[in-house]
User: Fold this.
Amino acid sequence: MKKVLYSLDVGGYAPEITEITFPIFREYAAKIGADFQVIGERKFPDFPPVYEKFQIWDLAGKNGADWHLFFDADALIHPDMFDVTAVVGKGVTLSVGTDFAPTRFEPDEYFLRDGRWIGKGNWCLAASDWCLDIWRPLEDLTLEEAVSRIHPTADERAFGIRAEHLIDDYVVSRNIARFGLKHMLIPDICRDVGASWQVWHNYKATIEEKAAAMRQALIAWGVSAYRMPSPEIEGWMSPGELGVLYNLAAQMKTVVEVGSWKGRSTHALASGCRGLVVAVDHFQGSPSERETTHAAAKHEDIYAAFKRNTEGFKNLSVLKTDSLEAAGRFKPGDVDMVFLDGEHTYEAAKADIEAWARIPKVCLCGHDINEAGVKQALAELGVPYKILAGSIWIAWKGPSAVEPASQEGK
Assistant:
Protein backbone atom coordinates (compact mmCIF):
# COMPACT_ATOMS: atom_id res chain seq x y z
CA MET A 1 0.00 0.00 0.00
CA LYS A 2 1.54 3.28 -1.11
CA LYS A 3 1.48 6.27 1.24
CA VAL A 4 2.74 9.84 0.99
CA LEU A 5 3.35 12.24 3.88
CA TYR A 6 3.29 15.89 2.78
CA SER A 7 4.29 19.14 4.40
CA LEU A 8 4.35 22.72 3.16
CA ASP A 9 7.37 25.02 2.87
CA VAL A 10 6.66 27.89 0.51
CA GLY A 11 9.31 30.58 0.29
CA GLY A 12 11.65 29.06 2.87
CA TYR A 13 9.27 29.15 5.84
CA ALA A 14 11.09 29.51 9.19
CA PRO A 15 14.17 27.30 8.83
CA GLU A 16 14.52 27.29 12.63
CA ILE A 17 11.21 25.39 12.66
CA THR A 18 11.66 23.08 9.68
CA GLU A 19 15.12 22.00 10.81
CA ILE A 20 13.29 20.52 13.81
CA THR A 21 10.19 19.11 12.15
CA PHE A 22 11.28 17.85 8.76
CA PRO A 23 13.84 15.30 10.04
CA ILE A 24 11.16 13.92 12.36
CA PHE A 25 8.62 13.80 9.53
CA ARG A 26 11.13 11.84 7.45
CA GLU A 27 11.73 9.43 10.32
CA TYR A 28 8.01 8.91 10.87
CA ALA A 29 7.37 8.51 7.14
CA ALA A 30 10.07 5.84 6.94
CA LYS A 31 8.50 4.02 9.88
CA ILE A 32 5.04 3.83 8.27
CA GLY A 33 6.40 3.10 4.79
CA ALA A 34 5.49 6.48 3.30
CA ASP A 35 7.29 8.80 0.93
CA PHE A 36 7.95 12.29 2.31
CA GLN A 37 7.22 15.20 0.00
CA VAL A 38 7.54 18.92 0.71
CA ILE A 39 5.25 21.20 -1.29
CA GLY A 40 7.41 24.21 -2.11
CA GLU A 41 6.13 25.78 -5.32
CA ARG A 42 3.30 28.27 -5.64
CA LYS A 43 0.40 27.00 -7.74
CA PHE A 44 -2.20 29.36 -6.28
CA PRO A 45 -0.31 32.69 -6.21
CA ASP A 46 -3.46 34.76 -5.59
CA PHE A 47 -4.26 32.83 -2.42
CA PRO A 48 -2.49 32.86 0.99
CA PRO A 49 0.48 30.44 1.18
CA VAL A 50 -1.42 28.01 3.44
CA TYR A 51 -3.76 27.32 0.53
CA GLU A 52 -0.92 25.60 -1.35
CA LYS A 53 -1.63 22.41 0.59
CA PHE A 54 -4.59 21.92 -1.77
CA GLN A 55 -2.02 20.94 -4.39
CA ILE A 56 -2.48 17.48 -2.85
CA TRP A 57 -5.66 17.21 -4.93
CA ASP A 58 -3.55 17.24 -8.10
CA LEU A 59 -0.49 15.47 -6.68
CA ALA A 60 -2.58 12.55 -5.46
CA GLY A 61 -3.97 12.01 -8.91
CA LYS A 62 -0.42 11.72 -10.26
CA ASN A 63 1.32 9.59 -7.62
CA GLY A 64 -1.43 7.01 -7.24
CA ALA A 65 -0.94 6.60 -3.48
CA ASP A 66 -3.52 4.84 -1.34
CA TRP A 67 -3.14 7.21 1.63
CA HIS A 68 -2.20 10.88 1.82
CA LEU A 69 -1.12 12.40 5.14
CA PHE A 70 -0.39 16.06 5.79
CA PHE A 71 1.38 17.82 8.66
CA ASP A 72 1.90 21.57 8.89
CA ALA A 73 5.59 22.45 8.91
CA ASP A 74 5.23 23.75 12.48
CA ALA A 75 3.66 20.56 13.88
CA LEU A 76 5.37 17.77 15.77
CA ILE A 77 4.56 14.07 15.82
CA HIS A 78 6.33 11.57 18.02
CA PRO A 79 8.26 9.17 15.75
CA ASP A 80 6.97 6.28 17.89
CA MET A 81 3.36 7.11 16.94
CA PHE A 82 1.75 4.12 15.25
CA ASP A 83 0.39 4.22 11.71
CA VAL A 84 -3.23 5.24 12.20
CA THR A 85 -4.07 4.52 8.56
CA ALA A 86 -3.33 0.84 9.21
CA VAL A 87 -6.21 0.42 11.66
CA VAL A 88 -9.02 2.22 9.80
CA GLY A 89 -10.77 1.68 6.50
CA LYS A 90 -10.18 3.85 3.46
CA GLY A 91 -13.64 5.37 3.64
CA VAL A 92 -12.80 7.88 6.40
CA THR A 93 -10.78 11.05 6.79
CA LEU A 94 -8.63 11.56 9.90
CA SER A 95 -7.55 14.55 11.97
CA VAL A 96 -6.63 15.45 15.53
CA GLY A 97 -9.43 17.77 16.59
CA THR A 98 -12.66 19.45 15.60
CA ASP A 99 -14.88 22.29 16.73
CA PHE A 100 -18.36 23.70 16.07
CA ALA A 101 -18.13 25.06 12.53
CA PRO A 102 -20.57 28.03 12.86
CA THR A 103 -18.31 29.54 15.54
CA ARG A 104 -15.94 30.65 12.79
CA PHE A 105 -17.55 29.75 9.48
CA GLU A 106 -20.74 31.18 8.08
CA PRO A 107 -22.97 28.18 7.22
CA ASP A 108 -23.95 27.75 3.58
CA GLU A 109 -26.17 25.16 1.93
CA TYR A 110 -23.52 22.43 2.31
CA PHE A 111 -23.08 22.91 6.07
CA LEU A 112 -26.88 23.18 6.49
CA ARG A 113 -27.57 20.04 4.47
CA ASP A 114 -24.81 18.04 6.20
CA GLY A 115 -25.89 19.08 9.69
CA ARG A 116 -22.79 17.73 11.48
CA TRP A 117 -21.20 21.20 11.83
CA ILE A 118 -17.66 19.87 11.62
CA GLY A 119 -15.06 22.66 11.82
CA LYS A 120 -11.56 21.47 11.09
CA GLY A 121 -8.10 22.53 11.96
CA ASN A 122 -6.12 20.76 9.28
CA TRP A 123 -2.55 20.92 10.56
CA CYS A 124 -2.74 17.12 10.84
CA LEU A 125 -4.96 15.49 8.24
CA ALA A 126 -5.11 12.14 6.45
CA ALA A 127 -7.33 10.78 3.69
CA SER A 128 -7.21 7.85 1.33
CA ASP A 129 -7.64 7.96 -2.43
CA TRP A 130 -11.34 7.32 -1.80
CA CYS A 131 -11.69 10.63 0.08
CA LEU A 132 -9.50 13.04 -1.87
CA ASP A 133 -12.36 15.54 -2.09
CA ILE A 134 -11.23 16.82 1.29
CA TRP A 135 -8.38 18.52 -0.62
CA ARG A 136 -10.46 19.71 -3.57
CA PRO A 137 -9.62 23.41 -4.24
CA LEU A 138 -12.42 25.97 -4.34
CA GLU A 139 -14.27 25.88 -7.62
CA ASP A 140 -17.57 27.59 -6.85
CA LEU A 141 -16.35 30.52 -4.72
CA THR A 142 -13.81 33.26 -5.24
CA LEU A 143 -11.21 33.92 -2.59
CA GLU A 144 -13.04 37.10 -1.60
CA GLU A 145 -16.34 35.24 -1.24
CA ALA A 146 -14.76 32.52 0.88
CA VAL A 147 -12.91 34.98 3.13
CA SER A 148 -16.13 36.93 3.72
CA ARG A 149 -17.60 33.78 5.30
CA ILE A 150 -14.73 33.28 7.75
CA HIS A 151 -14.94 34.91 11.19
CA PRO A 152 -11.87 34.36 13.44
CA THR A 153 -12.58 34.08 17.14
CA ALA A 154 -11.83 36.97 19.49
CA ASP A 155 -8.79 35.07 20.78
CA GLU A 156 -7.50 34.55 17.25
CA ARG A 157 -8.04 38.21 16.33
CA ALA A 158 -6.16 39.28 19.45
CA PHE A 159 -3.18 37.31 18.19
CA GLY A 160 -3.41 38.95 14.77
CA ILE A 161 -5.00 36.07 12.88
CA ARG A 162 -7.14 37.35 10.02
CA ALA A 163 -9.86 35.62 8.05
CA GLU A 164 -7.60 34.81 5.09
CA HIS A 165 -5.22 32.96 7.44
CA LEU A 166 -7.99 30.40 8.03
CA ILE A 167 -8.85 29.78 4.39
CA ASP A 168 -7.48 26.22 4.54
CA ASP A 169 -9.54 25.36 7.63
CA TYR A 170 -12.64 26.73 5.94
CA VAL A 171 -12.17 24.85 2.66
CA VAL A 172 -11.45 21.52 4.40
CA SER A 173 -14.47 21.92 6.69
CA ARG A 174 -16.71 22.88 3.77
CA ASN A 175 -15.46 19.95 1.70
CA ILE A 176 -16.31 17.51 4.49
CA ALA A 177 -19.84 18.89 4.51
CA ARG A 178 -20.14 19.28 0.74
CA PHE A 179 -19.11 15.72 -0.08
CA GLY A 180 -20.49 14.04 3.04
CA LEU A 181 -17.08 12.67 3.99
CA LYS A 182 -16.86 10.38 6.99
CA HIS A 183 -14.53 11.71 9.64
CA MET A 184 -12.73 10.25 12.64
CA LEU A 185 -10.49 11.78 15.30
CA ILE A 186 -7.06 10.25 15.84
CA PRO A 187 -7.27 10.62 19.68
CA ASP A 188 -10.52 8.62 19.63
CA ILE A 189 -8.88 5.87 17.57
CA CYS A 190 -5.94 5.76 19.98
CA ARG A 191 -8.32 5.48 22.92
CA ASP A 192 -10.24 2.65 21.27
CA VAL A 193 -7.13 0.60 20.51
CA GLY A 194 -5.45 1.44 23.82
CA ALA A 195 -2.55 3.35 22.29
CA SER A 196 -1.05 6.69 23.27
CA TRP A 197 -0.81 9.60 20.88
CA GLN A 198 1.73 12.39 21.04
CA VAL A 199 1.46 15.38 18.77
CA TRP A 200 2.17 19.06 19.23
CA HIS A 201 0.93 22.19 17.52
CA ASN A 202 0.32 25.79 18.55
CA TYR A 203 -0.73 28.23 15.86
CA LYS A 204 -1.02 31.20 18.22
CA ALA A 205 2.69 31.73 18.86
CA THR A 206 5.60 33.51 17.26
CA ILE A 207 8.25 31.57 15.36
CA GLU A 208 10.70 32.04 18.22
CA GLU A 209 8.13 30.87 20.79
CA LYS A 210 7.26 27.83 18.69
CA ALA A 211 10.89 26.79 18.23
CA ALA A 212 11.57 27.04 21.97
CA ALA A 213 8.40 25.14 22.89
CA MET A 214 9.18 22.46 20.31
CA ARG A 215 12.62 21.92 21.79
CA GLN A 216 11.06 21.54 25.22
CA ALA A 217 8.49 19.07 23.87
CA LEU A 218 11.25 17.01 22.28
CA ILE A 219 13.20 17.00 25.54
CA ALA A 220 10.10 15.72 27.35
CA TRP A 221 9.56 13.07 24.67
CA GLY A 222 13.21 12.04 24.60
CA VAL A 223 13.26 12.73 20.86
CA SER A 224 15.82 14.70 18.86
CA ALA A 225 16.58 15.69 15.32
CA TYR A 226 20.30 15.40 16.16
CA ARG A 227 22.25 12.91 14.10
CA MET A 228 25.57 11.48 15.23
CA PRO A 229 28.50 11.87 12.83
CA SER A 230 29.72 8.78 11.06
CA PRO A 231 31.79 7.13 12.37
CA GLU A 232 30.51 7.87 15.87
CA ILE A 233 32.74 9.81 18.23
CA GLU A 234 34.04 7.73 21.10
CA GLY A 235 32.53 8.51 24.48
CA TRP A 236 30.10 7.46 27.19
CA MET A 237 27.01 9.55 26.48
CA SER A 238 23.99 7.74 25.02
CA PRO A 239 22.26 8.89 21.81
CA GLY A 240 19.22 9.93 23.86
CA GLU A 241 21.36 12.08 26.14
CA LEU A 242 23.05 13.66 23.13
CA GLY A 243 19.63 14.52 21.75
CA VAL A 244 18.70 16.26 24.99
CA LEU A 245 21.91 18.32 24.87
CA TYR A 246 21.24 19.24 21.23
CA ASN A 247 17.69 20.40 22.07
CA LEU A 248 18.87 22.35 25.10
CA ALA A 249 21.70 24.04 23.23
CA ALA A 250 19.32 25.03 20.43
CA GLN A 251 17.53 27.29 22.93
CA MET A 252 20.73 29.02 24.06
CA LYS A 253 22.84 31.81 22.64
CA THR A 254 25.97 30.77 24.56
CA VAL A 255 27.02 27.44 26.09
CA VAL A 256 30.04 26.39 28.15
CA GLU A 257 30.90 22.71 28.34
CA VAL A 258 33.24 21.65 31.13
CA GLY A 259 34.82 18.33 30.21
CA SER A 260 34.86 17.54 26.50
CA TRP A 261 37.30 14.62 26.06
CA LYS A 262 37.08 13.58 22.38
CA GLY A 263 34.11 15.81 21.55
CA ARG A 264 31.13 13.43 21.57
CA SER A 265 28.92 15.79 23.60
CA THR A 266 30.64 18.87 22.18
CA HIS A 267 29.48 17.88 18.70
CA ALA A 268 25.85 17.75 19.87
CA LEU A 269 26.09 21.09 21.67
CA ALA A 270 27.75 22.88 18.77
CA SER A 271 25.28 21.34 16.31
CA GLY A 272 22.32 22.69 18.27
CA CYS A 273 23.52 26.09 19.46
CA ARG A 274 23.31 28.96 16.97
CA GLY A 275 25.70 31.02 19.07
CA LEU A 276 29.05 30.36 20.75
CA VAL A 277 29.98 27.08 22.43
CA VAL A 278 33.07 27.10 24.66
CA ALA A 279 34.68 23.74 25.39
CA VAL A 280 36.74 23.66 28.59
CA ASP A 281 39.17 20.77 29.05
CA HIS A 282 42.87 20.24 29.72
CA PHE A 283 42.63 17.13 27.48
CA GLN A 284 44.82 15.05 29.78
CA GLY A 285 42.05 12.76 30.99
CA SER A 286 40.76 12.59 34.55
CA PRO A 287 43.02 11.28 37.33
CA SER A 288 41.11 8.00 37.41
CA GLU A 289 41.51 7.61 33.65
CA ARG A 290 45.20 8.34 33.78
CA GLU A 291 45.61 5.59 36.39
CA THR A 292 43.85 2.89 34.35
CA THR A 293 45.53 0.67 31.81
CA HIS A 294 43.01 1.60 29.11
CA ALA A 295 43.47 5.32 29.57
CA ALA A 296 43.29 7.03 26.20
CA ALA A 297 45.82 9.60 27.37
CA LYS A 298 48.43 6.85 27.37
CA HIS A 299 47.75 5.83 23.79
CA GLU A 300 46.86 8.91 21.79
CA ASP A 301 46.64 12.66 21.87
CA ILE A 302 43.13 13.36 23.18
CA TYR A 303 43.20 16.96 21.98
CA ALA A 304 44.10 15.88 18.45
CA ALA A 305 41.12 13.51 18.46
CA PHE A 306 38.87 16.31 19.78
CA LYS A 307 39.96 18.68 17.02
CA ARG A 308 39.39 15.99 14.39
CA ASN A 309 35.91 15.25 15.68
CA THR A 310 34.78 18.87 15.94
CA GLU A 311 36.43 20.44 12.90
CA GLY A 312 34.15 22.62 10.84
CA PHE A 313 32.27 24.22 13.74
CA LYS A 314 32.78 27.97 13.40
CA ASN A 315 30.80 28.57 16.60
CA LEU A 316 33.19 26.52 18.77
CA SER A 317 35.94 27.95 20.97
CA VAL A 318 38.30 25.94 23.19
CA LEU A 319 39.78 26.82 26.57
CA LYS A 320 42.58 24.30 27.08
CA THR A 321 42.73 24.54 30.84
CA ASP A 322 41.17 23.06 33.96
CA SER A 323 37.63 23.77 35.14
CA LEU A 324 38.35 26.05 38.10
CA GLU A 325 40.81 28.25 36.22
CA ALA A 326 38.35 28.60 33.35
CA ALA A 327 35.46 29.51 35.68
CA GLY A 328 37.49 32.48 36.88
CA ARG A 329 37.38 33.96 33.37
CA PHE A 330 33.57 34.31 33.41
CA LYS A 331 31.29 36.67 35.29
CA PRO A 332 27.71 35.87 36.35
CA GLY A 333 25.41 36.17 33.37
CA ASP A 334 28.14 35.87 30.74
CA VAL A 335 26.62 32.71 29.25
CA ASP A 336 23.19 31.10 29.03
CA MET A 337 24.08 27.51 29.86
CA VAL A 338 26.89 25.61 31.58
CA PHE A 339 27.16 21.84 31.16
CA LEU A 340 29.39 20.03 33.68
CA ASP A 341 30.92 16.71 32.68
CA GLY A 342 34.32 16.68 34.33
CA GLU A 343 35.65 14.46 37.10
CA HIS A 344 32.72 12.83 38.96
CA THR A 345 34.22 12.28 42.38
CA TYR A 346 32.45 14.11 45.21
CA GLU A 347 35.30 16.56 45.72
CA ALA A 348 35.68 17.40 42.02
CA ALA A 349 31.94 17.62 41.36
CA LYS A 350 31.39 19.90 44.35
CA ALA A 351 34.24 22.17 43.29
CA ASP A 352 32.88 22.41 39.74
CA ILE A 353 29.34 23.18 40.90
CA GLU A 354 30.55 25.84 43.35
CA ALA A 355 32.76 27.42 40.69
CA TRP A 356 30.18 27.51 37.90
CA ALA A 357 26.77 27.78 39.61
CA ARG A 358 26.64 31.59 39.46
CA ILE A 359 27.77 31.88 35.84
CA PRO A 360 24.81 30.81 33.63
CA LYS A 361 21.72 32.95 33.10
CA VAL A 362 19.38 30.14 32.11
CA CYS A 363 20.56 26.76 33.36
CA LEU A 364 23.30 24.78 35.02
CA CYS A 365 23.28 21.13 34.02
CA GLY A 366 25.54 18.13 34.01
CA HIS A 367 26.11 14.45 33.35
CA ASP A 368 26.28 11.33 35.51
CA ILE A 369 23.69 12.11 38.17
CA ASN A 370 23.84 8.38 38.93
CA GLU A 371 27.36 8.83 40.25
CA ALA A 372 27.26 9.03 44.06
CA GLY A 373 29.73 11.91 44.14
CA VAL A 374 27.67 14.11 41.81
CA LYS A 375 24.43 13.41 43.65
CA GLN A 376 26.03 14.07 47.04
CA ALA A 377 27.55 17.35 45.86
CA LEU A 378 24.24 18.64 44.49
CA ALA A 379 22.45 17.68 47.69
CA GLU A 380 24.99 19.29 50.01
CA LEU A 381 25.03 22.48 47.98
CA GLY A 382 21.22 22.61 47.94
CA VAL A 383 20.93 22.71 44.15
CA PRO A 384 17.36 21.88 43.04
CA TYR A 385 17.52 19.81 39.89
CA LYS A 386 15.49 17.62 37.57
CA ILE A 387 16.60 14.61 35.56
CA LEU A 388 15.98 15.17 31.86
CA ALA A 389 17.04 11.89 30.28
CA GLY A 390 19.45 9.13 31.18
CA SER A 391 21.82 10.66 33.71
CA ILE A 392 21.57 14.33 32.62
CA TRP A 393 20.44 16.68 35.37
CA ILE A 394 19.41 20.31 35.06
CA ALA A 395 18.90 23.24 37.42
CA TRP A 396 17.03 26.13 35.81
CA LYS A 397 18.46 29.49 36.79
CA GLY A 398 15.93 31.75 35.07
CA PRO A 399 12.65 31.66 33.17
CA SER A 400 12.40 28.53 31.07
CA ALA A 401 9.87 27.41 28.51
CA VAL A 402 6.59 26.09 29.83
CA GLU A 403 6.62 22.38 30.54
CA PRO A 404 5.55 20.77 27.25
CA ALA A 405 2.37 18.78 26.78
CA SER A 406 0.43 17.28 23.94
CA GLN A 407 -1.61 20.07 22.40
CA GLU A 408 -4.34 20.51 19.89
CA GLY A 409 -4.60 23.62 17.81
CA LYS A 410 -5.66 24.88 14.44
